């Protein structure tokens, strides 16, 4: 009798344990199914119940161009994640941001209008000179702007420019690295006078506008230059890519790798360090460049000067293009590399 009671109790305990295991398994499966993320997604959306700080990039399915209101220019969209940032290729002759005159025809404003961003100033990440073409990052959210600012400030964004400079480079100048003072970028205003429009850069144009309205003349610009001379120099690495002939004049294709971001840094670097102005650069081409570039054995002075006049508006543009851009995307924690080649029609 006692043995039967013990055996019955043992079977009851085993049965209870099995039932508890079944109940635990059922609850686990139910919880997993309820918390499993949705697998459906729309273009540019994140397939999860919780959005990360930055949406991961989606593949761009087709070429797309953004019209710039008030102009016949368009921006080529090279990359976007539809949520935090967009990278466009800016054509020459277009401001990156609103200038001192309040001009609304600029790249950042056009992108903001296309993507429905109301706060245009919070979309500005960096700038290109008006006559420089190439890749430009625009933030679609304020937190993206803060993060991208940090990437630029810490020099984690890698940029590569292509350019064509007047003349040939000697063997010892085929590649190298040097630094220039940003103050040199102001010489074109100081030397030629503040009432002559010699630059199209938005920042320097704002200085010109101030001079014209306040009538303080060159003395103000000299003060600006003195302050700029105390700032850190802009560092640039470069390498030659070979010769090319433009209207009978030997020119050189080069790659430029800026390690910092100063006003007119690359234009000043070519003119000061290489003693060669960028083809089509109104601000620096004629600043003592003709004498050093004369080919006395073939073209001669008069022929060269004629060619120089023809080339100062080479295809209506300056031959400087921001063609490569690399940065780390916070949403996926991986490097994004974008290329946009340009041969300047040469």
Polypeptide structure, described:
- Residues 1-25 form the signal peptide.
- GO terms for molecular function: pseudouridine synthase activity; RNA binding.
- It holds the Pfam family PseudoU_synth_2.
- With 346 residues, the chain is an alpha+beta fold.
- It folds into three domains: 49-154, Pseudouridine synthase; 157-181 and 233-346, Pseudouridine synthase, CATH 3.30.2350; 182-231, no CATH class.
- It is 32% helix and 22% strand.
- The protein is built from nine helices and ten strands.
- The chain has helices at 2-35, 107-115, 142-153, 187-192, 202-214, 218-229, 265-272, 289-293, 300-311; strands at 65-67, 74-80, 85-90, 133-139, 158-166, 175-180, 234-246, 249-258, 320-329, 334-339.
- Strands 1, 2, 3, 4, 5, 6, 7, 8, 9 and 10 form a ten-stranded mixed beta sheet that branches.
- The model is unreliable at 30-56, 182-201, 211-218 and 287-305 (pLDDT under 50).
Q: Can you give me a brief rundown of this structure?
A:
Residues 85-271 form the Pseudouridine synthase RsuA/RluA-like domain. This protein is 32% helix and 22% strand. It is of the alpha+beta class and 346 residues long.
